[in-house]
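Researcher: I'd like a structural prediction for the single chain below. Treat it as a standalone chain; there are no partners to consider.
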Amino acid sequence: LSLREIPGDGQLLDSLRGDVALQALRLVHGMNQIAVARKWFACSMNCMTVHQVIVQALGDLATPLLQLPHLTADITRHLKTKKRQIKTIRDLVEMDEEERVSLLRNLTPEQREDVMAVARAFPCVVVDAVDFRVLGQEAITPGGLVTCQIRLRMT
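Model: Treating it as a single chain, here is the predicted structure.
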């Protein structure tokens, strides 16, 4: 059961959801600090995954399309078929307008506009270059200190 699925729509429930999420994020951050200090890589990666799940209010196997307003699991199921593979928010933004309107026909025009406004606001991060450097050595050796520099571009 995720924070998104707790029944009820009262102001108190919304406030409690926010409080639980905030406390959970603090707890996961503390767990990650311990994992990094102890050099527990797998545990640290799991902490980052849990952090992402809490922030997005989605399960780790859920489609990112559920982050968009008005889209439900039923609607997103129709976006991924043998004919088309709409897996990401970027895929939805880049598809043909007529096909998108057809796929989202169960939504009102205002709801479709909401979906697209939020979808277009999502950044697309592209890795431009990755460079590995070894300090003071010509090649990477066991135990050597390696620096990884990544250049990103947002579109």
